[in-house]
Amino acid sequence: MNEQKLELPPLEVLKRQFATRDGFMRALGAELLEIGRGQAKVRMKVRAESLNFNGTCHGGAIFSLADCAFGVASNSYGRLAAGIDSHITFSAAPRLGDTLTATAREISRSRKIAVYRIDVVGEEAGHVSSFTGTVYIIGDPNFT
């Protein structure tokens, strides 16, 4: 059996590509702080556009931040990984100006499936949410 060794792109190359190619991340005001194989850290400040009718951070904005970290971490190996399932729980409601950080880490990985946990923490609000996500690893390079 002749298997080719996968050449992984350098993490700094991936970091630049995620930062320039993800328009939604930019629209959220999210910043990629760290990237490693199977892990990522993304941060955003709660802006007026992120507030819901109660004057606290909209759950959709929190989900989107966690999803950004999930996407970066799950694609950090240089192979396309597509989300197939996710779940989020909320424990606090951040307010305008709070800085939220989503930290993603890989829980398990097989040849075709990987599972991640993402915790979102606010500087003021403390623990905000827990997100779990599963990806299907397609195998095609995600950056060329």
Describe the protein's architecture and organization.
The protein has 144 residues and is an alpha+beta fold. The protein has one domain (11-141): Hotdog Thioesterase (Thiol Ester Dehydrase, Chain A), CATH 3.10.129.10. 23% of the residues lie in helices and 43% in strands. It has 3 helices and 6 strands. A 6-stranded antiparallel sheet has the order 1-2-4-5-6-3. A hairpin with a 3-residue loop joins strand 4 and strand 5 (113-122). The longest helix has 16 residues, at 59-74. The model has no long low-confidence stretch (mean pLDDT 89).
Give a topology summary.
Elements (H helix, E strand, L loop, with lengths): L10 H11 L1 H6 L2 E6 L2 E7 L13 H16 L4 E12 L8 E11 L3 E10 L3 E16 L3
Antiparallel strand pairs: 1-2, 2-4, 3-6, 4-5, 5-6
